[in-house]
From TrEMBL:
Pfam family of the protein (one): Glyco_hydro_114
Residue numbers spanned by region Disordered: 1-30
UniProt entry tagged with the keyword Hydrolase: yes
Cited InterPro entries: Aldolase_TIM, GH, GH114_TIM-barrel, TM1410-rel
Source organism of the structure: Glycomyces buryatensis
Protein's recorded name: Glycoside hydrolase
Keyword annotations from UniProtKB, A to Z: Hydrolase
KW Hydrolase (keyword) present: yes
Domain of life: Bacteria
All residue ranges annotated as the Glycoside-hydrolase family GH114 TIM-barrel domain in the record: 35-291
A GO MF label: hydrolase activity
Length: 308
């Protein structure tokens, strides 16, 4: 399988129950030093040795080193655990990329909906259909559990905002949002039924907190672009403040927030890191390609060019 293209999500204008890993042992509000690392490609020597040596205690990585079917093994994830890391498996739940191993089977169905214009190899899907669960979500959960990941980091819950409504007669944004929450709840229930202590972290769409069952099903949320858009552009659109208010409410409910902003200018890195500390979020500032390991906030502020 070829390596996946660089990954980073865009947050459009918006239409804890239990604590896992490092979060459970940290009752105080996070400081900028309480960082995490987010890498979806560019793994050194196709392995995780560089991540094991990274200063951050928590890592979000793809299920597979190549974005395909060359999955990280239980031994590799175990080595990260031995290095003191908590590790979450990234995958999408509202879309399918053409390079993923499940794509051929999904493409034979009517689950594939409109193309995501920002991503030439990605399509939104009928994520509420049982076949989507059987073909994609459940196998990915099984893979994450078998490899020993501490949790799953679920991208594209904002699919409910982006699906072409003409392709799904009878649906509207409200019904699609409810069905996305139902899917996230199903992920949590499946992990619990399997006896897996698997944390659930959706990425973006924090407004889903307003739907019953959502906050009870998640252990945290990942959020992009809280303070800087891609890349080094201050987030000062009207939706930026609304997005931040939703994230604050989630944090106030006792749920972990993993924030990531895309910036390379030293002043912007320092600003983002300061804001994480003020808000009590775990933060990471990196480049849009998510193909490198940047230093934690405190180190980046001093030397933003440093990387592994």
């Amino acid at each position: 399988m070829h390596a996946p293209p660089p990954r980073v999500r865009r947050r459009r204008a918006p239409a804890g129950r239990r604590m896992h890993g490092w979060a459970r042992d940290r009752p105080d509000a996070p400081s900028p030093a309480d960082s995490w690392v987010y890498q979806l490609s560019g793994y050194t020597d196709d392995g995780l040795g560089a991540l094991a040596a990274a200063e951050q205690e928590t890592a979000v990585i793809d299920l597979a080193r190549d974005g395909g079917d060359d999955y990280f093994t239980a031994d590799e994830i175990g080595a990260l655990h031995e290095a003191g890391k908590t590790v979450y498996a990234y995958f999408t739940i509202g879309s399918i990329e053409t390079y993923r191993p499940e794509y051929p089977a999904v493409a034979e169905t009517d689950l594939v909906l409109n193309h995501w214009d920002e991503w030439p190899d990605e399509y939104f899907t009928a994520y509420w259909d049982e076949r989507w669960w059987d073909l994609v979500v459940r196998p990915r959960l099984d893979q994450a559990i078998a490899a020993g990941f501490d949790g799953v980091y679920l991208d594209v819950p904002n699919a409910y905002e982006e699906i072409d409504l003409s392709l799904v007669p009878g649906e509207d944004r409200e019904s699609l949002a409810r069905k996305m929450v139902d899917l996230i709840v199903a992920v949590d229930e499946y992990a619990e039924a399997a006896g897996a202590d698997l944390a659930v972290f959706p990425q973006n769409a924090p407004e889903l907190r307003e739907y019953p069952g959502y906050l009870e099903a998640i252990d945290g949320i990942g959020v992009e672009d809280l303070f800087f858009l891609d890349q080094d552009v201050p987030c000062d659109e009207d939706w930026c403040e609304e997005n931040l208010e939703h994230v604050r409410a989630i944090s106030a409910a006792g749920t972990t927030v993993l924030a990531v902003d895309y910036a390379r200018e030293a002043a912007n890195i320092e600003t983002a890191c300061e804001r994480y500390g003020e808000e009590g979020f775990y933060g990471y500032v990196t480049g849009v390609d998510l193909d490198r390991i940047d230093e934690p906030c405190t180190a980046q502020s001093a030397s933003p060019a440093t990387q592994r």
